[in-house]
Amino acid sequence: MTLFQLKIFLAVVQTGSFTRAGKLLHASQSGVSHSIGDLEKELGIILFTRNRNGVMLTDAGEQILAHVREIVNHTEQINQVAAASRDVKNGTIRIGAFPSFSANVIPGIFQAFRSHYPGVELLLFEGSYAEVEAWIKAGAVDLGFLADPSDGLDIVQLLSDPYVVVLPANHPLGVHDIISIEQLTHEPFLSLKSGCERLVMSAFQEKGLSLNKQFEVAENSTILSMVEAGIGVSIVPSMILPAMPANVEVKPLNPPIIRKIGLAVLSQQIVSPVVAAFIKEAQIRLAESI
Question: Can you list the alpha helix ranges (DSSP code H) found in 139-180?
Fold first, then answer.
């Protein structure tokens, strides 16, 4: 087996798809499938089950997952030590991110990166999707965390964040295990105005439905407070919810709406060694959190 095969294995676990794993590693879907097939033949076991919803680890795959991560992580640590001996010792990285990602994911990534590269300064610029994307294109930041960015940037896909319905406590729809978007068409709707509302609007438009939009709100905490007060309902990314949500009910959505979050740069071919090290650290950190 090769290190690249093991990285492909982890990428498929992370993304749940051969196609998305290929995009993550800049490889073709057929190349990913072939590499996994060769690895399965060499090990004499089936690693994934395939269905129309994606791929899932088999019991055997689950058993080797921790060992594969350990091998890949040790290899990365060797590379990081080597990099630190070359030119990833000092420098500054300017990083753009949207608020929910900054609050929930960035601290872990920064902590892990600084443990390996203590001499590198990390500067965080927080803004909306549009602002982060504009900063990257203008060179104001070296890279940025984005959800569903437009064309013109190189993207390293990192994770998926499903949207959920938030309802006031004791709302009549709270009796349902799953809420459909059709059930929300006549409800007073509170819309997040940060960029993540685009996927919600598109989902309704695709079904020829409209929303009874009452307010547009910029702050995550504000929209949850308004739902809690009974002013309306909303659809928000799971990531914005605190560990213990306010006095609201949270329900999965049908059909699902999922935002894909990635790291964006102008071009991966021209990033500095220190930026490349940060991208790699973000990939490792988020792979470990699966």
Answer: none
Query: What does each C-alpha distance from 173 to 176, 177, 200, 228, 236 come to in angstroms?
Result: 6, 9, 19, 14, 16
Section 3-13 average pLDDT: 87
Nearest to 128 by CA among 198, 214, 189: 198
Peptide bond into 242 cis (omega under 30): no
pLDDT confidence of residue 289 = 58
In this prediction, residue 286 carries a pLDDT of: 84
Single-letter residue type at 157? Q
- Longest pairwise C-alpha distance within the chain: 62
Cα 67 from Cα 18, distance rounded (Å):
21
Strand intervals (E) in the chain:
48-51, 54-57, 91-97, 120-126, 143-147, 154-168, 179-180, 188-192, 212-217, 234-237, 248-254, 258-265
